[in-house]
Amino acid sequence: MTSFEIDRLDFTTPAISVWASGDERRTNWPVVYVLDSADSAGVPSVYVGETVSAVSRMRQHLQNPSKAGFRRVRVVIDETFNKSACLDLESHLIRWLAGDGHFTVLNGNEGIIDARYYEREQYRESFREIFEQLRLEGIFQRSIPEIENSDLFKLSPFKVLTREQAIAVEQIVEALLEDLATGTPSTSVILGNPGTGKTIVAIFLIKLLADIRDYEDADEIEQDSLFSEFFVPENRKLLKSVRVGLVVPQQSLRDSIKKVFRKTPKVSEDLVLNPFDVGKSSTSFDLLIVDETHRLNRRANQSSGMRNRDFADINERLFGSDDLSRTQLDWIRTRSTHQILLIDEQQGVRPADLSGETLAAEIADAKRSHRWFPLARQMRVRADADYVGFIRQLLRGDLRAGDLPDFGEYDLRFFGSVVDMQDAIRERDREVGLARLVAGYAWDWRTRGNKPGFDFELEGAEFVWNRTDKDWINSPGSIDEIGSIHTVQGYDLNYAGVIVGGDLRYDELTRQVVVDRAAYRDKKGKENLKKLRRQTTDEDLLTLIQNIYGVLLTRGILGTYVYVCDPDLRDYFSTVLRPGIDQ
User: Fold this and answer.
1) Does 191 lie in the same domain as 127?
2) Smallest Cα–Cα separation from 473: which of 197, 249, 66, 151?
3) Spatial distance between the Cα atoms of 481 and 455, rounded to a whole number of angstroms
C-alpha cells in the first residue's frame, strides 16, 4: 500500500542542518526515526521515536545528554503516514528491537495501547517491509519470526497493552502512588485465566515504575500515552527510594525474566527473586509484585533438605517460631509494605502450593478494598470462543457430543496415534517454530541427569523427558523431547502437542473423569503434607492433575494437538473433539 523511504544521516548538528534544507516533510510531516550508537564504545544502544517535525526533534535530542552516545539516525518517511500509523510503527520497532537483543533499547514503556485506526492492517504489512530494509542495514540481526518466538520478545516490558490491561495498570499505579504518599499499606490482586497476560502486566509494571522514577525533565514523554500523567516531579520523588522486587516462584520462568531484565535499561536482574530471597532478605521491600502467586508454597516438604531448613529458619526469624501455618505469602506480606498478587486459582499443580481457601481469601479481601483487577480477555490462544473455559469443562468430564464450540481458525486436533501427532508437531515446528510435545507426569524420569536411554514408550516409539529444566522450550533438541508442567507453565508455544497420560482416566459407569494415583509419577505432586497433618486425597490429586492438563492444553497460540492414553478417556475426548477436527 505504501511507498516509504529511509533517510540516513549522522547524528550531528551540521548534518541535521544540511538535511533540513531538503524535503519539506523533514520539518512538517509525521515520521518515525531510529537513533543508534552502533559505532561507539560499549554496548550498542538504540532509541525509536515518532514526530511531526523531524528536524526540530533531532535538535532537541542533540541537546539532551542522555542521547549523546548516538552516532546515526534513520528517518522513515512515507507520504501516507499519519499520527496513528507512526505511533503503531514506533511501537512495533521498539518491540522487535527489544526481542532481537542486538541493541539495548533506551525507550521508556509509558505505553501505547493496541489502538484501531483506518487501514491498520495494510499499514502493518508495510511495517514488515520497513523492518526488512532496516535489517539489511544492520539494525536487526534476526528475522521477525525468530524475534517473535524468542523469550526476549515474549517477556519484554515493551508491550502494547490491551485496553483491559492498560486500565488495570493505570489504576494500580494511581492507587500505589497515593498509598506511598500517605504511608498506607496495600494489597492488590490481578486475577486472570491462562493467556490473559498476567506476567506481561507484572513485567510492564516493574519497567513503568522505573521509568517514572528515573525520567529526566529533558526526556520526551509521549503526551498521548495512557500513562503520561504519571511522569511528574512529585511521583519521581515518591519512587526515588522505593525498593521493588518481582517474585517468581518457578525457576525456569524466573531465569528467563532475568535474561530479559539484563537487556532492559533501568531495571536489573537483581529485582527478580524467588520466595526464599524475600524471606532471607535483611531489609524490607516497599513493593513486591508476585507472579504466579498460586505457586507459592505452604509449610510442606521442599525440593531439598537445605530448602526445608531455610523454610524453618525464615519462619523462626520472621515470626519467632517455625509456625506451621505460615506460608511463603506470609513472608511476602511481612517483608513488604505493598503487594501486587497475580493469581489464577486453577493453576496450582502440587499439594504444597497455596490452598484454594487462601487464594479465595486474598481475592475476597482485594474486592472489599477495591483493589481487585480481573483480566478476562484471553490473549494467547487465537480462538473465536472461550477456549480456556472449554478445556476446563472437557477435563472435568462435563461435555458431550455436539458441545464443541466454533474456534474459528484455531488448529485444535484430536489424534488417534501419538506418532502421527509427533510428526505433525515437527512439521509445525519447521513451518513456524515453537512447536513442542508436552505431557502429564505419568511416566518415570529415568534419564534424569542426562542418563542414556529413554523414559517411556508408546506405539513402539521411544520418548525422552526434557533434558533441562531451564528454558527448555528454546534449548537444543527440545523438539525431540517431552516437556513437563515445570518447563512450560508461564510460557507460550505456537503449537502444543499434549499427551494425556494414564494418570487421568474415564469411568464409563459414572461418566466422570477420575484419577489413577499409581500412574501419576511426580512424588512431590501427590505427597501428603505431613507437617500440616493433611492428606492429599484422590479428590485433591484429581484437581491438581486437571489443573496441570489445563495448563498444558492452553499453551498453544495457533493450535493444540491432543493424544490420550487411557482408552475410555480417549473415547470421551474423541466424542467431544472429533466433529470437524479428527486426525
Assistant:
1) no
2) 151
3) 10
For 380-451, list the strands marked E by DSSP: 411-414, 435-439
In a domain? residue 434: yes
Helix, strand, or coil here: 244? strand
Q: Is residue 583 part of a domain?
A: no
| DSSP H stretches of helix in 76-119 | 83-100
Identify the sign of the CA torsion 540, 541, 545, 546.
negative
Closest CA to 519 of 495, 538, 535, 493: 538
Domain end: 324, 348, 375, which one?
A: 375
Instruction: Please tell me whether residues 110 and 170 are part of one structural domain.
Output: no
Domain interval for residue 478: 387-577
Q: Are 565 and 540 in contact (CB under 8 A)?
A: no
pTM score? 0.93
Distance CA 550, CA 389 (A): 10
**Amino acid present at 225:** S
DSSP output for 227-238: TGGG-SHHHHHH
Domain end residue (candidates: 148, 177, 193): 148
The string of pLDDT tens digits covering residues 139-179 is 999 999 999 999 999 999 998 888 899 999 999 999 999 99
- What are the residue ranges of helices labelled H in 101-241? 120-136, 144-148, 151-154, 163-182, 198-214, 233-239
Q: Based on the domain organization, do 274 and 192 belong to the same domain?
A: yes
Q: Is residue 157 part of a domain?
A: no
Query: pLDDT tens for residues 49-87?
Result: 999 999 999 999 999 888 889 999 999 999 999 999 999
Number of domains in the chain: 3
